[in-house]
Amino acid sequence: MLSLSEMIKDGTRHISGKNEAILQNIEAVKNLAEITRTSLGPHGMNKMIVNHLEKLFVTNDAATILKELDVIHPAAKIAVLAAHMQEQEVGDGTNFVLIFVGELLQKAEALIQKGLHSSEIIAGYTAAGKKAQELLEKMTCLTVDDPRNSELVTKVLRSIITAKQFGYEDLLAPIIARACLSVLPSNPKNFNVDNVRVAKILGGGVMDTSVIKGHVVVRDTETTIKQAHKCKIAVFAAGIETAKTETKDTVKITDAESLMNYNKGEEKAIEDVIQKVSDAGIKVVISGGPVSEMALHFIERHQIMCVKILSKFELRRLCKAVGATSMLRLGAPTAEETGYCDSVTVQEIGSTKVTIFKQDTEDSGISTILVRAATQNILDDIERAIDDGVNVYKGLVKDGRFVPGAAASEIALSKALGQFADSTPGLTQHAIRRYSDAFQVIPRTIAENAGLKATDVISSLYAAHQKGEKNTGIDVEDGVVADVDKLLVYDLLSTKQNAIRLATEAAVTILRVDQIIMSKTAGGPKPPQQGPRDG
Length: 535
Fold this sequence. Notes:
Number of helices: 18
Helix content: 40-55%
Number of strands: 18
Distance between the termini: 58 Å
Shape: elongated
Strand content: 15-25%
């Protein structure tokens, strides 16, 4: 009788059995969850990561940490994929997914050691996951009915920023709210996160961060004209220079007069183009490619501002901000292709010159948050916090329900699921009880990261919830438990529901595996070692 090793290629690894496959998978995910666990909550610690390109990251953002970690273990990859899916779908709660998956598998490990079969644990986890979704629906403590209510939006965004940038929530929450509201379309559900841009400028402090209605280009103008007001704008995608021929030709010039005529012809062609642009009332031209010196000469002569943008994505966003159409042809734009901006100015922020396209209208199309900080790492981390805030706003315009934060909803779920386990017959009740206990990892982690005694905090939370105070959470500043309405800490319901669903599915998927078969790595030369790149 043939064994598996005789049927498959040499070098293929085959792992099977309870101890080798299942428990090894659980151990791998637990170790991965431990990495990001200390980064949870307002007092979460930063991780310092140097990636394969030797770029340094200093952050407590789980999505960035997992993105830069090169995880190769197949089971751990499943947990990473679940966290990445949370980041793509919701944009927040990535760390919750990974920590919860790790805790669910740790609780499952204890049950497997006691003799329970994986299928019984999977049945219990699936039932508990469905029940948790139902329970969450009933825990709503705040609803944002009007996404244009600046005060209420700032209130809910504050807790999101607190978890990422503790101490800057009172500065960043109103700025993010203002930026989102300025680009909110008539139908709020069509809100696009790409319409809120971030421009990072080194120097100054985080308190110098501001929001601008319009688009900011971190670049100086090509001409000496540094400001234009209530101006028409033309956007050229291919640059402003004389057209090149399709074929390679040789021009033979025999005398000086022919040379002069040739130069004059080229000069006349570019002058005619700029003259037509000027006659159309254009005061600002945007070039998506190189601008020749001759073109610059005539642009300067007609007192036109010229800005060069080499990124086609940034060019697209600028077109949206000013309402222009990017043109491939060189010439005067039509009325439909012409953009408009209330103010285009060059400002020097720190030692960096930026061109600001500012709109005074209520609906500006694009708004830009101008972030200032002393180091590049702080700039990047503030940008990640802003991204999370904008993504939460996107979620609340679709479903404005919020549940208590500060680990209040996790304790309430743990208590309710424990009662559900008591009423469930059969062996699955053990898995449901372990599932309910797994929720305790969130309050325990938040308390530990804040330097509090986790056991005392959890017992105080359970005591408060037993009295019927269902909105009681952890006050990390005073080290006590308090009402979340007083703390102003809320979690978006859709974020929590999605995170619990993804974590449960990932844990169940890993528990279903009883064999791992890994082929030998493909041969061939190793890719060349790349040197460090600029950020």
